[in-house]
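Exercise 7.
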Amino acid sequence: MTHRPTLRTVVGALALIAAVLTTTGALAAEPKITVPAHPTDLDVTPADEQAAKDGYARIQEAFGREDFEDALRHADAVFNAVPNASTALIRAAILKQMKRHKDAFLTFLLATQLNPTKKEKSSITKGLAAHGRAAKPRLGGLAVEGGGDDASCEADGVTWACKHRVAVQAGTVSVTVTAPGFEPKSVKVRVRAGKIRTTRVKLKEAAVVVGPGDGGGGDGTAGDGTTGDGTTGSGDGTTGSGDGTAGDGTTGDGTTGGGDGTVEWGKYKPPSRGTNVGAWLLVGVGTGALIGGGVMHGFAFGAKSDADALALPNDGLDDEDRQRRYDNAKDSATSNETAAFILYGAGAAALVGGIIWLAADDDSSSSVHVAPMVGPTGGGLSAAGRF
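Solution. The predicted structure, written as tokens, is:
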């Protein structure tokens, strides 16, 4: 016996299918990256503080009668007046009661960047764990460091300032970090639900961008050259199409570019030379040795003073004991003075070597001449030249 589906059965089945498709579509449309709304003005006036106190009383009253929508409205006003970790946590507590897990997670995440106290940090950690796992889909936090204040992050079509933390669907995400003057860098990061993943990137300074500019060409020496109108080019420049020695460019219309200029730095900056660690280490060693020499010279001076005092008869000492102490003081003065001169010489040599190394490593036109001075009464440095 064949059973035909009734109209009610067909309509019910279609409604179920539509509900499933709607739910699936909503989950698929859920953005993988969500950027919390960061406050733009953190300055708080006395009027703001009073508004926050009044709003807090209204929050308590609405919360007591379980009107969470009204409590949230007042919490938003309080946070806008005094944006800090404390007011953010009040808002998060209300969202928790409303079971708005994603919004609660975003609020806890925002609170991490509003100078929370030690006790508030503990509450934030627990809140992130609970709501990150309860959210659908599950969420974790992402913090990208190392790019600088001007760095920009992009992932899954969403762009944000890297200095801000964002909520990410748990799993692996590819993030591209860009900053003025540096080459973009992409990293893959795995984010766990309820946790904040901190990843540090090291950007490489970008090479110089060569392009058009207003350059050093003109009507010059090599004007109409060997081949064509330039020395070796087919234009009016050295190998380009200008009117002179370096005409309008080696290749095209610029000395090195395709325009009218020598070099255009563009938005990038040239790589820095870095710090000469070896030279500075040598300077430090030399300075330390000179200081050590001064200390030893002080010891020698003290011993010499003792020897001078013992050179005369002393009623408290017999001649044999006084002579023994005199000899010891003289030996101590001599050995300390010798050690001082050795340290002066070694320290001066190391210091001079470090300074010369630094000067040789410098591209500037400074010319410095430094020479050590060591004598029986002390030591030092003599420096002369152009700085």
